[in-house]
Amino acid sequence: NAAAVLKLNPYFGTARRMAVLAEAARVKARKDKINSKRTKLSAEEATKIKAAGKAWYQTMISDSDYTEFDVFSKWLGVSQ
Fold first, then answer.
1. Pair 46, 52: CB distance under 8 Å
2. pTM of this structure
3. Distance, CA of 78 to CA of 80 (rounded, Å)
4. Cα(66)–Cα(48) distance, rounded to whole angstroms?
5. Residue 72 and residue 40: Cα distance in Å, rounded?
6. pLDDT tens for residues 18-75?
7. With the CA atoms of 66, 71, 77 and 80 taken in that order, what torsion angle do they form, in degrees rounded to the nearest 10?
8. Which residues have a Cβ under 8 Å from the Cβ of 41 and sit 6 or more positions away?
9. Residue 55: how many CB atoms within 10 A of its CB?
């Protein structure tokens, strides 16, 4: 019970308030630090990155085409 502890120890309220303020300052500092390191991408850069990701994914799909093997066709759900 916080009220009972506050009656016995008047510093408890101050300590709790300072802890809350310190935590808020830590959260704000971390958010500012992360936002300063984050870079803004232009629309062109974003589309280039997205296209590269799609190309990589298509390459992975084509490189891992195991449908002609019996063992892998069971995993892929291909009926024989």
1. no
2. 0.47
3. 7
4. 30
5. 43
6. 999 999 999 999 999 999 998 888 999 999 999 999 999 888 877 766 555 555 655 6
7. 100
8. 49
9. 10
